[in-house]
Amino acid sequence: MTRPGGRAGQEESGTLASLFLAAMRRHDRAGVLLHQDGTKWRETPDWRLERQVIRLALFLRERASLVPGDRVAILSRLRPESVAAELAAIAQGAAAIAIDPELPSDTVRRAIEQAAPAVAFVPRGPEREQASGARAVVCFEGKAEGAWAWSEALDLGGTLDTPERAQSFRAQAREVAASSRALGYLAGLDGGSSCQYLTHAEAVARMRALRTELPARKGAVALVAAPPTLAARLALLSFVFDGLTICAVGTPGRESAGLQPEWVVGPAGVQESERTAAPVPRRAAGLFERVLAPFRSDPRKAKLEM
User: How far apart are CA 57 and CA 80, in angstroms?
Assistant: First the structure.
């Protein structure tokens, strides 16, 4: 994935970890992520996302004993914190498995059991019990006994965030093998769903296929308002890694006025409402539908989910 005019937005690389490092070195946008805070959209600049990922990765390595090959479960809707958690895991050679908390409780339970994560991220304290087998649990909101709060994890990572350790994080990220597992996802119907994985090489190839006809443009806004399916995560990471696009992370069904996104990734209803508010190029939306269709996590929703 490169920027128009031969300007490298990302180095030729076979891993998501190296693409992340390259994007944080070379970026040209006001912010990498937007999220809703009440009625306003709040911005996360590249430097802040990078610091969060480094500090979280150091916390996972030093305090949660995360090692390459481990699995990290992220039970959450798409949000800036889940993006940082996923990047921190894959940059250390672990596989990140996203699980939609809106799925039936039995499906969530089976998914976590199959994933057998070393570390789990959960929405709030009460969900801590769903990941009782993990060595460490981090709550995005609040805290539970035996679990870390998100702010605590970042603060503890901050105490480890010396220039030397930050360099060790980057060095380890560069050593992640293209053949190692990167993104975990649920495949199959609820009654027989199973955790499957894309390697770094497979994920990079699919992202590049996705963006072949959608080159990055400075200042463009992409709205990803979808459950944490493999398709949505691939699209979101492609925007983070291109170094130019501002990616708004929303929730299906919530108001997103004022964004005027150039690209929309989400259920069909979200796409149509956003086109009405701010027309999205039909070619772009159509390409997302065509390229992402084979990668949806739930085949029963193949006509709806991106």
Answer: 15
Dig out the tokens for 90 from the structure: 């894959």
CA-based max dimension of the chain: 53
CB atoms inside a 10 Å sphere around CB 68: 14
DSSP calls for 61-98: HHTS---TT-EEEEES-S-HHHHHHHHHHHHTTPEEEE
Contact between 80 and 33 (Cβ < 8 Å):
yes
pLDDT tens for each residue of 103-151: 998 889 999 999 999 999 999 988 888 888 899 999 999 988 889 999 9
Residue 77 and residue 181: Cα distance in Å, rounded?
22
Phi, psi at residue 281, to the nearest 5°? -55, 125
Global confidence as pTM: 0.85
> Under 8 Å CB-to-CB from 137, ≥6 apart: which residues?
119, 120, 121, 122, 128, 131, 144, 146, 147, 148
Q: In 10 A of CB 172, how many CB atoms?
A: 16
Other CB atoms within 10 Å distance of the CB of residue 143: 17
In angstroms, the CA 228 to CA 183 distance is 11
